[in-house]
Amino acid sequence: MTTQETAAPTQPRSGLDRYFSISERGSTVKQEIRGGTATFFTMAYIVVLNPLIIGTVPDADGRVLGIPQVAAVTALVAAVMTILMGVIGKYPFAIATGLGLNAFVTFSVASQMSWADAMGLVVLEGIVIAVLVLAGLRTAVFNAIPMQLKTAISVGIGLFIALIGLVDAGFVRRTDVGPVPVQLGVGGELRGWPTLVFVFGLLLTAILVARRTRGAILLGIVVTTAVAILVEAVFDIGPSFVSPDETNPDGWQLGVPALPDKVFDLPDLALLGDFSLFGGFARVGVIAALLLVFTLMLADFFDTMGTVVGVGQEADLLDEEGRLPGADRVLLVDSLAAVAGGAASASSNTTYIESAAGVGDGARTGLASVVTGVLFLGALLLTPLVAIVPFEAASPALVIVGFLLLTQIRNIDFDDYAIAIPAFLTIVLMPFTYSITNGIGAGFISYALLKATQGKAREVSPLLWVIAVLFVVYFAIEPIENALVG
User: Measured between alpha carbons, how far apart are the two ends of the chain, in Å?
Assistant: First the structure.
């Protein structure tokens, strides 16, 4: 169940309604605006977080892109591509720099070449995926996946984004020693006012959702942010990261929720167009560069597919066979977003799982994405204001939306082990490896293998067999690269 309003009349009431199929999908303009706003607030952190990853690490030549410059292009590309997703894709999917992809570009690609060369490889990756979409291959892959595996992807994503929310808020943290990789809070205890703010926000949002309150998720974010600002004003807590040599485990995880000194700030867009399309091939060689592009492409390809399946299923947008009508439009815009991200030095942009927050608040059409995109445009000038929403205020929405996605697990037949085991691997590996792509890959490989061992290899589509083999290559990319490059 979601917090959407009572179904609206099915007859379009305006040109806007007809274009976005608002009434047809049981939504309203108010519902779409609210959902688009909720999505923005759950993913606005990328304007702050992406610069901390990309803008602070030197490339192989020692060049640092800079936090203000990366923040500006991050907001700009997210704005433009999310609006295009709404207008062309016509679904409530928002786009921004892909987490995980940006870390790979920073630490595995730019460490071997210049930032311009690295971003050129990102552009190439996006072009290749766009060609695959135009050739119909990406949509064919989307349609070749069995329905119950699609459901498993949705459930796995639910656990994944819930874990993201818990980690972002500091409720769950890594351990420094011992065999257990994560723990509750600091040293197994919940400490600090920020954690209490998160707990407050989680309980508030849960109550609002359980009571079917309209705008529950957005309302939870706004109220929790206000509480966070008040707590910071009274107790002067500060950030968790003070300097490379000093941390404050009881501090706010990213943004400090204090009212900014200024609301407006002019963006620095100097990084637009700062890329070299084939420079990376000259720096590391053709084979190594192609392997980097392949890794980026496969991760981007299936991260997006998983997100579209998960969010689309939660919004009841898939047909009886688990297909998204007009998926080729969505996938084309997503592919072009990768190109745009590389061309702007913001790293590959992709469809965001946080779109589920807007869906949880009633979004069903591309109008919600237009709203999210317009808010990102505002973030170009309002970066200081966007930064006041801390992880502790936005993360409760991710945890609750994770629950909503998890409820789909009832549609998986756990009596059929040939589908249940791949579904299980898909579900658990997404949060446990912190990667949607890893979960999908394990599910595809195990599904094909189990069907073959049962003598039912023909039940697996030829395309799915090809993908399973590609995932084997993906998981073994390092030894393959070592063997080829030497």
Answer: 54
